[in-house]
């Protein structure tokens, strides 16, 4: 028992070291190399860190960061619901796939920020516009990966479900569960896209949020504060990715067991 605990702690320490080793090294190099910088656009990292504490550990966090996180969560959740639902229909029935293929092929290559001028006229500058832009940018990886996952479900599983005369909803659940690994693959891509599109939408059409605050600092030549916003966005993206990895690892534990893959995270 003790040996197992020690082995688990060692494995956890190794995982943390591998995850943080390179970022810490790069951060240290940035600190040392920028220490004597006199360029206004590339201030010393020590000044950026100081500005980070002054800006983001204040009411700015509640005024700008929390609204951004709320928009990100709502837009990403909407993309998940639409992407999984429509992706299931497209992957499950060839008729739906044939009917929707041309329009999906068109909209999937349309950059989400292109919709901003249209939405500004049609919807206005409120949160609804930003949520639509975030969802429309994030939905495609989820939808396409879900469709591919559903189409790739083993026919043996479907035949077994039919032989046991499972009800329709049970069969749909079986298919969706088998497609879960690809659904998570699309959701992982969509999370990064959601963060990017959120920042772009706030830079172009917002009066609050992280993107708005960073662009405001840039326009007022508050360069260390601007860099602190960039640093915060990087930390936010890193943290969200790690949280997603934990959820994915737990949700797909059955899949790694079924395929014989060992725990590597």
From TrEMBL:
<keyword id="KW-0812">Transmembrane</keyword>
<feature type="transmembrane region" description="Helical">
    <location>
        <begin position="103"/>
        <end position="125"/>
    </location>
</feature>
<dbReference type="Pfam" id="PF00528">
    <property type="entry name" value="BPD_transp_1"/>
</dbReference>
<feature type="transmembrane region" description="Helical">
    <location>
        <begin position="12"/>
        <end position="33"/>
    </location>
</feature>
<dbReference type="InterPro" id="IPR000515">
    <property type="entry name" value="MetI-like"/>
</dbReference>
<feature type="domain" description="ABC transmembrane type-1">
    <location>
        <begin position="83"/>
        <end position="247"/>
    </location>
</feature>
<feature type="transmembrane region" description="Helical">
    <location>
        <begin position="131"/>
        <end position="153"/>
    </location>
</feature>
<dbReference type="InterPro" id="IPR035906">
    <property type="entry name" value="MetI-like_sf"/>
</dbReference>
<feature type="transmembrane region" description="Helical">
    <location>
        <begin position="73"/>
        <end position="91"/>
    </location>
</feature>
<keyword id="KW-1133">Transmembrane helix</keyword>
<feature type="transmembrane region" description="Helical">
    <location>
        <begin position="226"/>
        <end position="247"/>
    </location>
</feature>
<protein>
    <submittedName>
        <fullName>ABC transporter permease subunit</fullName>
    </submittedName>
</protein>
<keyword id="KW-1003">Cell membrane</keyword>
<keyword id="KW-0813">Transport</keyword>
<keyword id="KW-0472">Membrane</keyword>
